[in-house]
Amino acid sequence: MSRRIREEAGLEAALDELTALYYRVVEEFKISGKIDREAEEAAVASYIRAWVSYGSLRQLQSRIHLLQVENDRIRAEHEQKESKIHQLQFENTRIQTENDHVQRLLEAVHNSATIRLRNRLVTLPLIGSLARKLARRMVNYQQLMQ
After folding, report:
1. Three-class SS of residue 48?
2. Measured between alpha carbons, how far is 63 from 57 in angstroms, rounded to an integer?
3. How big is the chain by its Cα radius of gyration, in Å?
């Protein structure tokens, strides 16, 4: 629908028509070499009557209505998209806040005395290998229990 409106009421089409009309008038003037005032006045009057005529007026009103309907649809779509943007921005802020909180918790766990002790024990030759074997068995045991 909007494509049809743009084609019928488009600036390009009107500009093409006006340009073609201009060139026809220039050619007519070159051929005749004189201005016929009565013919010009009659042509202008006819043109104005055509634009003011009921059919043209109804056609223009119809075009205006179609453009208003299209404009209303686009505005409603724009408002929906604006609302969605605000929702997504709010959700993004919430997720970033949650991510920051999880990062702080993870950092606290890594800096805890328990993890630091575990990291040191794992590096010791005898205790480290026993700790790794014990950890693997615990994981296997937990998998069997599930």
Report:
1. helix
2. 10
3. 40
The CA distances from residue 21 to 24, 35, 84, in Å, are 5, 16, 49
Q: What is the C-alpha separation between 97 and 26, in angstroms, rounded?
A: 71
pLDDT digits (tens, 9 = 90+) for 30-42: 777 677 778 878 8
Distance between CA atoms of 107 and 23, rounded to whole angstroms?
A: 79
DSSP string for residues in 52-79:
HSHHHHHHHHHHHHHHHHHHHHHHHHHH
In angstroms, the Cα distances linking 68 to 14, 36, 71, 111 are 20, 42, 5, 64
User: Angle at CA 8, nearest 5°, toward 7 and 13?
Assistant: 70
Separation in Å, CA 40 to CA 24, 26, 28, 35, 87: 14, 14, 12, 8, 62
pTM higher than 0.85: no
Residues 66/5, Cβ–Cβ less than 8 Å = yes
Residues 6+ apart with CB under 8 A from 127: 121
Residues 1 and 66 sit within 8 Å (Cβ to Cβ): yes
